[in-house]
Amino acid sequence: MTDELNALAGAYALDALDDDERAVFEQHLAGCPACTEEVRGLRNAAAELSHLSEAGPPPELRAAVLGAVAQSRPLPPRVPGARVLPLRRARATALWQGLAAACALIAVAASVWGYSQHREAQRAQTSVVQSLLAAPDVRATTTALKQGQGTLLSSRSEHRLVLIARGLPALPAGRTYQLWLMSETGAPVPGGVFRPDEHGNVEVPAAGNLDAVDRMGVSVEPAGGSAQPTLATVQVLKL
Amino acid sequence: MTSMWFERSGASHSKAVPARTPEDLVAAAARGDEPAFAELYDQTSSRVYGMVLRVVRDPAQAAEVTQDVYLEVWRQSARFDSGKGAVLPWLLMIAHRRAVDRVRSAQSSMLRDDKYAQLHTERPYDSVSEQVQTSLEAQRVRRVLDDLTPAQREAVTLAYFGGYTHTEVAELLKVPLGTVKTRIRDGLIRMRDALGVTA
Questions:
Q1: Do residues B84 and B152 share a domain?
Q2: How many Å apart are CA A138 and CA B51, to the nearest integer?
């Protein structure tokens, strides 16, 4: 349990995390008895708040509820063996190691995910992020950009990374953002092009030989991308 | 002498059969006991409905959400794990989650704008304090809430009764997200300790 991830416990207990942050935190909870215990206590405290808003429901609601209940059967109890595991077992240990190493950094990443409204697209991206978090050597760094900020999650052993950017400025038509793998020696290697959502948020997965790579560049290019970055627009994020 | 003995016995006997606890009622509901579930509804619905109403604001939507909540509780009753806590926090957690989902869903985006406007004239905490609170529990919770710092109280109530995410709370209060996280967590910890509701 790190302070930064643990700091989400209060917001989690109040349902004040968005779906993605909640998913990350719940994954953490599954392996963190201390946070689980804390969340339980904080939830109990939150539940007490409802004393302040007590209000009798409309009388007809009772009949509606009981009518609906009469037409529905309680689900059977869960029995051991039928339990659905949130993660494949084989990966659970690796994931946990990754989490332990990256707890603080995940909290940063989680906060970055906050804004996206593209739930479906987001879900697919989140699973990319989650699988990357399973890498034993996952690292995260956050860099303030001229506008917005970018967090890089990267694994050198798996040669993969994800850029999680937030608050990027909107681009005019015919322009796109492009990612670059950069190193002390050698020319920038072009990565994918991407467009953030209307809030300027985006998650961009990328893969490539990271052995010599110590930075990523983000530049603004003509639609379709370029072979060389337009230097005036390049912003650098350290891995 | 004998009659007194019987009276006392009768009195103590009736105390020995208290109203069934929510835990008893959920266990009975898990076996399909509808009257037990009705009793659970009677014991808890003003807490659930009132909180949902506070979050979603619209009585018709609050009733819908409340109905969904109880249907889910009925369906999940056999899966409730008393080893992980009491029924009421579990029930209120389901209700709060659903109320919050309702206000955050895309269809409510217009309502959200209204809520934002309302926020400047009617803070959730103030609207709470306008309520007549007669129950002893409400008075106790109010005292505990009053003991928080104003910043903690504001962050906690905006999240709980306003249904805002911590990111939105940070935006509304114009303070960094990290500050909001800390205020919410510290505020809840103080409440938990003062209310004696540790897990």
A1: no
A2: 41
